[in-house]
């Protein structure tokens, strides 16, 4: 891993250090968080096959298979002369999406099928939405929702660039979906809640996270996350699946949110999450003064040092 220059001058808050020393190997976490992320792409099979895109790129680029995603590849320039993969004509044509390898996991776990009704509740800018549409093969209905109108612009662009034809874009904080459900009984087969979070698993993408970190921010975000996941569990059909994910490694935003849902909903169960080739760490079942429902042990906790990717948390819930 190549360390980002001048990061040795960064001052870590004592509260952060003590907290993460209790959660993981802090030095390994620190090194991974201050290293350049590995560039990765996901082939968009709505427009091109994996084999065809490999033929187009392998003359100038080295592709290394992401073990847990057959459409995913780590990518480096053969002569180490270029890093601007977003400028490639294949990217402009929508043949691939520049996406972190761990970001590919939630849509894989959601496992959307052609013909289903699927909701991506926090869709912008569209990496996971376009991946879901790819697995749906543009068949069925995909509702791509986001709370902010300015975030919907890149979402719409990416859906168009990737050739997604089965998506409807909506703007709202989730209440409109509940009202629709209560008025019409309309529900979804599968819902992805890739919730807004503190981003402590993606420090190498925004070093300001270290400076901004504080306990009140975590509490505020956890409250929003619980609200979003509650809405999803309310409007998913019986027997349906809800996948909750964050790029945070904070227990309050991860296992704590799932614990709250298991307390609030007696018709929800956690399903075991695992993917071949993916290294993951044990879920946090107790931290500080909190003891979580033992079912949270079935969730997936990924630290940045586990696979050299973003840190992520993924939980798969089913409505009984």
Describe this structure in words.
With 320 residues, this protein is an alpha/beta fold. It folds into two domains: 40-98, Alpha-Beta Plaits; 105-319, Rossmann fold. It has helices at residues 14-23, 26-33, 50-57, 89-92, 105-110, 127-136, 149-161, 175-184, 208-212, 215-235, 255-264, 304-307, and strands spanning 40-43, 61-65, 72-77, 96-98, 117-120, 141-146, 167-171, 188-194, 236-246, 268-271, 286-287, 290-291, 300-302, 312-319. Strands 5, 6, 7, 8, 9, 10, 13 and 14 form an eight-stranded mixed beta sheet that branches. The chain has a four-stranded antiparallel beta sheet with strand order 2-3-1-4. Helix 10 (215-235) packs across helix 11 (255-264). The longest helix has 21 residues, at 215-235. 42% of the residues are buried.
Summarize the structure.
β6 (141-146), α7 (149-161) and β7 (167-171) form a beta-alpha-beta unit. The strands form three sheets. Strands 5, 6, 7, 8, 9, 10, 13 and 14 form an eight-stranded mixed β-sheet that branches. A four-stranded antiparallel β-sheet has the order 2-3-1-4. A two-stranded antiparallel ribbon has the order 11-12. It is of the alpha/beta class.
């Amino acid at each position: 891993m190549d360390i980002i220059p001048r990061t040795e001058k960064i001052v870590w808050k004592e509260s952060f250090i003590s907290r993460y020393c209790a959660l993981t190997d802090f030095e390994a976490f620190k090194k991974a968080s201050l290293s350049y992320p590995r560039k990765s792409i996901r082939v968009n099979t709505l427009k091109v096959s994996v084999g065809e895109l490999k033929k187009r790129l392998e003359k100038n680029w080295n592709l290394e298979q992401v073990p847990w995603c057959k459409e995913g590849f780590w990518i480096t320039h053969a002569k180490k002369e270029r890093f601007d993969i977003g400028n490639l004509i294949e990217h402009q044509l929508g043949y691939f999406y520049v996406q972190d390898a761990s970001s590919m996991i939630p849509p894989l776990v959601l496992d959307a099928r052609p013909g289903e009704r699927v909701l991506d509740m926090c869709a912008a800018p569209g990496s996971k939405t376009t991946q879901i549409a790819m697995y749906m093969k543009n068949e069925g209905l995909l509702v791509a929702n986001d709370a902010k109108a300015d975030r919907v612009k890149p979402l719409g662009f990416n859906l168009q660039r990737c050739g997604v034809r089965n998506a409807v874009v909506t703007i709202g904080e989730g209440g409109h979906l509940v009202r629709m459900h209560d008025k019409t009984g309309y529900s979804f087969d599968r819902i992805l809640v890739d919730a807004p979070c503190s981003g402590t698993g993606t420090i190498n993408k925004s070093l300001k996270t270290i400076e901004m970190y504080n306990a009140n921010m975590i509490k505020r975000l956890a409250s929003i996350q619980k609200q979003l996941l509650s809405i999803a569990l309310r409007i998913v059909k019986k027997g349906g699946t809800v996948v909750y994910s964050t790029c945070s490694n904070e227990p309050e935003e991860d296992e704590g949110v799932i614990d709250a849902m298991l307390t609030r909903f007696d018709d929800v169960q956690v399903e075991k999450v695992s993917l071949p080739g993916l290294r993951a760490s044990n879920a946090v079942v107790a931290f500080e003064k909190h003891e979580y429902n033992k079912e949270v042990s079935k969730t997936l906790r990924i630290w940045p040092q586990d696979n050299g990717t973003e840190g992520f948390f993924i939980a798969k819930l089913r409505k009984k």
